[in-house]
Amino acid sequence: MLGFFESIGHFILSMLEYIGGTVRLLANSLGFLMRGKLRVGLTINQMSFLGVNSLLIVLMTTTFAGMVIALQLAHVAVQYGVGKMVGGSASLAMARELGPMLTAIVVAGRAGSAITAEIGSMKVTEQIDALKMLAVSPVGYLVVPRLLAMVLMMPLLTLFSDISGLVGGSIVANESAGIPYQVFWDSVRRMTLPEDLMKGLFKSVIFGIEVAIVSCYQGLTTGRGAAGVGQATTGSVVISMVVIFITNYILSALMFTGA
Question: Which domain holds residue 17?
Fold first, then answer.
């Protein structure tokens, strides 16, 4: 019994230490941003790698997610005589929840793991120590460009996700339930408010910050050897996804309760 409580205590302490480390890393990164110490070239390269190169897989994921939503909603809606609401319902689901969350999960799996693997490899090969010897801050050189790129690109990816999900949903609603495209898109325009879209994009910014900070922190705290890099990369994806789901619920409860 004593060992059980000890394991719980160790877990809680480790979790608090991890949270403190990530918060400290975020604070240091924001300090560089506030002082205007930006590496524009590195940031643009990261925007291309983290954002542009993730676009195709994000579009594929969210298109089929929108198709599934429409497939489930269309037949039930037509059966109960509310087929005109399918487009709006799918739009609200994509704009508020699925667009930001699925985009963040895909980016965490693709780009977040790559960030951790790259920085982790630099850590185990002592390249980060070399940066410190050259008086170059690893936070300013490695973390800030990735954080800024993620914050800038995540809302754009989410916007494309929302559109692709609705396009896929409109096709499925038309083919499977006979809902005309005009009816579908009219419902989207009537039921979706600009604030729904903006709140979803705000979510994506928060998710982008979380994915970038967790991925970079995992890389900077990588253990020795190839095994350490592999463990850090796996942990990066898992922790990012858990944090995204938790944060998504909190933000939804704060922004959409009663909406």
Answer: 2-255
Question: Which tokens hold the place of 154?
Answer: 């995540």
Phi, psi of 28 (to 5 degrees): -65, -40
Predicted TM-score (pTM) of the model is: 0.90
For 12, residues 6+ apart whose C-beta sits below 8 A from its C-beta are none
Signed CA dihedral, 39, 42, 43, 44: sign only:
positive
Exposure letters 205-220 (e unless 16+ CB within 10 A, then b): bbbbbbbbbbbbbbbb
User: How far is 209 from 213, CA to CA, in rounded Å?
Assistant: 6
Tally of domains within the chain: 1
Residue-wise pLDDT tens for the chain (259 aa)? Answer: 667 777 888 888 888 888 898 999 999 999 988 887 788 888 999 999 888 999 999 999 999 999 998 888 887 877 777 778 888 889 999 999 999 999 999 999 999 999 999 999 988 888 888 888 888 888 988 999 999 999 999 999 999 999 999 999 999 988 888 888 998 899 899 888 899 999 999 999 999 999 999 999 999 988 877 788 889 999 999 999 999 999 999 999 998 875 5
- String of b and e for 156-172 (b: at least 16 CB within 10 Å)? bbbbbbbbbbbbbbbbb
